[in-house]
Design brief:
The structure holds two protein chains of two kinds.
Chain A: H1 14-20, H2 24-59, H3 62-77, H4 80-103, E1 112-113, E2 116-117, H5 132-165, H6 168-176, H7 181-211, H8 223-231, H9 247-276, H10 283-293
Antiparallel strand pairs in A: 1-2
Chain B: H1 3-10, H2 29-65, H3 70-85, H4 88-105, H5 115-140, H6 144-152, H7 157-187, H8 205-216, H9 222-248
Helix pairs in contact in B: 1-2, 2-3, 2-5, 2-7, 2-8, 2-9, 3-5, 4-5, 5-7, 7-9, 8-9
The chains are: A mainly alpha, B mainly alpha.
InterPro entries (chain A): ABC_transp_permease_HisMQ, MetI-like, MetI-like_sf
Membrane topology (chain A): Multi-pass membrane protein
Organism (chain A): Histidinibacterium lentulum
Chain lengths: 294, 270
């Protein structure tokens, strides 16, 4: 990175650290923070969409509502990390099985043989000869989908509660005006539920941030992976920058990163709530009105 | 080999009692149910230890946060922020590697690098922070009249806290605290995936479930088994906490007693 980094062994103190912290692997470590942010940026809206579908299903007619309520209930009873480990394999096998059915209709051997899961070579995902980045992207997309499914259930929970919290009189008024079920849902219920959903959704966002290190368990090279990799004891034979076991310090850095991230989100949500409460007939809105009047 | 023999061999496998070798081929349903159930011993151990010890620290933290004196309030606030603001997964990693570094300097820290003590310590501090926040919220919403009534009876200091403030705080916090207990038990599955070694493959339920899923490439058997175990534990927690809730509310008139209505939207998670 820097011109004085040609002979690290001769360096010490600050220049050594400047060179050490800008090695290729460290740059990959910093890029992994981008991976985390990318995951959050894709997962949050996707989970919200899943949650909306789940909450809407839970309000629907009988067989559909069982599906929605089951989706909400199951994640509460079972640890989320179990779902992560489950869905990554299950989704992968599901996609491969679908491709297998389409691409190799005349394959006569069973897919599950003993302890193996074998589809025809054309159905492999990604294909055996695919480039490394395809494998990594596929792994990342599986992780995104898994996160969206699991946190969609939590979002469904929050949104379902918010839909219940919209005053019953509003719905009855809409019905009295002759609106259909669909019109009532989209024109009256959905616009009003967000205020009630906001505390739950802000909580969910925090939970989502704090769940991102679990990417490591899904086989993605994320910040936890690199912290373990870079922090481990390095001997002079294998690297220009030998050091002892520094994993503790790397994880301390991650801890600080997450603390800062959740703190910033907390402040942002406090501002958003303040703004949304403006002019509302709630305690918070009333307090703002009085403060302005005084 | 019959199923009873499997249970006799593997029932306490997670504690190192019984057959040492794990099955390597032909994973029967009975083996999977037995070994995953055996791993549940660890989840229940971690959950119970953290919950019982964390309860007392949580009370102290909540009372500390409610003080006017900044010397008492600030440490409590920072403690809660530190453990609630960062992922438990990272806390486990950091604690494990810290204990590892400390161990080389002070042999005293040797047992802390094993899951039974190190991970239990992290879970204890973590649940104390989450419950402390819940208790603090309850402490703030104790009806003013209750405290004034205590003053009128001449109660003060410790007697007032012991007889009025604390029971009322628990009563108000109980539904949220039940949620916290459920998620604490769920969080125990992270232990053996976050640095803490499962020596001789003595791990928790998720450890064995993922072992079977890796060996058989079939996630559709071990994970549902795990799910059933955890749903049973969750129901057990709700039952036990419901009994405690009945006792906390026993002085109220029948029509004011609140059942343990869990508000899932307010769920706290790590």
């Amino acid at each position: 990175m820097f011109s004085f980094c040609t002979d690290p062994a001769a360096l010490d103190g600050l220049p050594w650290f400047a060179c050490y912290l800008t090695t290729g692997k460290h740059l990959a470590f910093y890029a992994a923070f981008g991976t985390v942010l990318l995951l959050l940026a894709i997962t949050a809206p996707l989970a919200l969409a899943f949650g909306f579908a789940g909450a809407a299903a839970a309000r629907g007619p009988a067989p559909v509502s069982w599906l929605g309520k089951g989706y909400i209930a199951i994640v509460r009873g079972v640890p989320d990390i179990a779902f992560f480990l489950f869905f990554v394999i299950a989704l992968d096998q599901f996609f491969e099985w679908i491709r297998h059915e389409i691409r190799c209709p005349d394959w006569d051997q069973p897919i599950r043989r003993g302890n193996d899961f074998l589809v025809c070579p054309e159905a492999k995902l990604p294909l055996g000869n695919a480039a490394q980045w395809v494998h990594e992207t596929y792994g990342f997309l599986l992780a995104v989908l898994t996160f969206a499914i699991v946190f969609g259930a939590f979002a469904a929970n929050v949104l379902h509660g918010a839909m219940q919290a919209v005053p019953r009189a509003q719905i009855e008024t809409a019905e009295a005006y002759g609106m259909s079920r669909r019109q009532t849902f989209w024109r009256v219920l959905v616009p009003q539920m967000w205020v009630y959903a906001l505390p739950g959704l802000s909580n969910l966002w925090m939970v989502l941030i704090k769940a991102t290190p679990l990417l490591f368990l899904l086989g993605v090279q994320d910040i936890v992976y690199w912290a373990r990799e870079l922090g481990g004891t390095k001997t002079p034979q294998f690297t220009d920058y030998p050091h002892g076991d520094w994993r503790m310090w790397y994880f301390l850095a991650l801890l600080v990163f997450y603390l800062a991230f959740t703190r910033v989100s907390e402040i942002a949500f406090a501002r958003l709530t303040e703004r949304l409460s403006h002019g509302q007939a709630t305690a918070a809105g009333e307090r703002q009105r009085r403060a302005a009047a005084a | 080999m019959s199923c009873w023999e499997t249970i006799a061999d593997y029932g306490l496998r997670s504690l190192g009692i019984g057959e040492r070798l794990l099955p390597r081929s032909e994973f029967t349903l009975c083996q999977q149910i037995t070994l995953i159930g055996s791993g549940m011993i660890w989840n229940v151990y971690f959950g119970l230890v953290a919950l019982v010890t964390g309860f007392f620290l949580a009370t102290a933290v909540a009372v500390g946060k409610a003080q006017d004196n900044p010397w008492l309030r600030k440490p409590s606030e920072w403690f809660i922020f530190l453990f609630r603001g960062s992922p438990l997964f990272i806390q486990f990693f950091f604690a494990y590697f810290s204990f590892l570094s400390l161990k080389s300097a002070y042999p005293f820290f040797d047992p802390f690098t094993s899951a039974w003590l190190g991970a239990a310590l992290v879970l204890f501090l973590n649940t104390a922070a989450y419950s402390g926040e819940i208790f603090h919220g309850a402490l703030q919403s104790i009806p003013k009249g209750d405290l004034e009534a205590a003053d009128a009876y001449g109660l003060s200091g410790w007697a007032k806290f012991r007889r009025v403030t604390w029971p009322t705080m628990l009563r108000l916090a109980w539904p949220a605290y039940t949620n916290e207990a459920i998620f604490l038990f769920h969080a125990t599955t992270l232990v053996f995936f976050s640095g803490f070694p499962a020596r001789q493959q003595m791990g928790d339920a998720l450890y064995y479930a993922s072992y079977f899923a890796d060996k058989t490439f079939n996630p559709f058997v071990p994970y549902p088994i795990l799910a059933v175990y955890f749903i049973l534990v969750t129901l057990g927690i709700i039952g036990a906490m419901g009994l405690a809730n009945r006792r906390l509310n026993r002085h109220l008139p029948q029509n004011q007693r609140r059942g343990l209505r869990l508000r899932p939207g307010a769920a706290l998670m790590r």
